[in-house]
Amino acid sequence: MGMVRIRHFEFICRSQSMEPSVARFRVFYQLIRNMGFYSFALRNVKNILINPLKAFMTGR
Q: Which of 9, 32, 49, 54 is the most buried (most CB within 10 A)?
């Protein structure tokens, strides 16, 4: 499932003519460990929606 999230993120970035980066990816996802496996979970979306363009453009 983690790879699907990475590919989806890359597709969205490229469709917006933006270079995908780890910093931008981390705006939306965080690395988690669940039952011995690593995956990506959504971050708190509320903070992203307050300043969506600034958070995404800077990757912070």
A: 9
